[in-house]
Amino acid sequence: MDNDIVIDPIKDIKNKKVHFIIKRFFDFILSLIGIVILSPILLILFIAIKLDSKGPAVFKQVRVGINGREFKIYKFRTMIVNAEKKRALDIDPENLGKFVFQSKSDNRITKVGGFLRKTSLDELPQLFNVLIGNMSLVGPRPEIPDVVKFYPENYKQRLMVVPGITGLAQVSGRGEIELGKTIFYDLTYIKNFSVIYDFKILLKTFVSVFKHEGAF
């Protein structure tokens, strides 16, 4: 499935410049409004995380964005401190398409963290990433460098747009789908991108989050 979509940068990206300008406008406005409206919830979650376990409430991690540029993503911390050192990612470069980032049986997740993941509230700090401009509301999820370094050429096509908080892959399975299928959905999104398409994905995201589909 991950080899079925091929992107033509000139046709599928450059011919949609106006759409991307409008997209950035809505990203800035909606993220700013979201931060202001949700600020009481952000404060409550911040306090809850601090009371639940030791460590910072906001987790920062290096991710890979548009054109391979690295940036720091912001999320509410859902795991114990130094969780990355307690379990290495099981990445098989020869079978990268089968890689699944999240696990249902991860004992590093805190009590509050489990709730945050189930409701996707841990993603809210990424509104600041959207406001800054290194993320969008909708787009391929930003990958970690340890996975991107094994990307074959067709996988690298997903790096041609700004990564998003949600995307076609997330409304099609969220945390439990394999990387190969994620790439397929991401390239399908890029090929069919429009501002209207973004709003449709946002609507589907709210439905998926409400139903707790694929979240753990």
Keywords:
two-stranded antiparallel sheet, two-stranded parallel ribbon
Describe the protein.
With 216 residues, this protein is mostly helical. 44% of the residues lie in helices and 9% in strands. The chain is built from eight helices and four strands; from the N terminus they run ααββαααβαβαα. The strands form two sheets. The protein has a two-stranded antiparallel ribbon with strand order 1-2. The chain has a two-stranded parallel ribbon with strand order 3-4. Strand 1 (58-64) and strand 2 form a beta hairpin. Helix 2 runs antiparallel to helix 5 (126-132). It starts with 8 loop residues before the first helix and ends in a 5-residue tail after the last helix. 34% of the residues are buried.
Estimate the strand proportion. 5-15%
Give me the number of helical elements: 8
- The poorly predicted ranges are none
Note the run of SSEs as H and E.
HHEEHHHEHEHH
> What is the first-to-last residue Cα distance?
25 Å
Structural class: mainly alpha
Average pLDDT reading:
86
- The number of distinct β-strands equals 4
Percent helix: 40-55%
Give the CA-based shape.
globular
Rg over CA atoms? 17 Å
Strand ordering within the main sheet: 1-2
Largest sheet: 2 strands, antiparallel
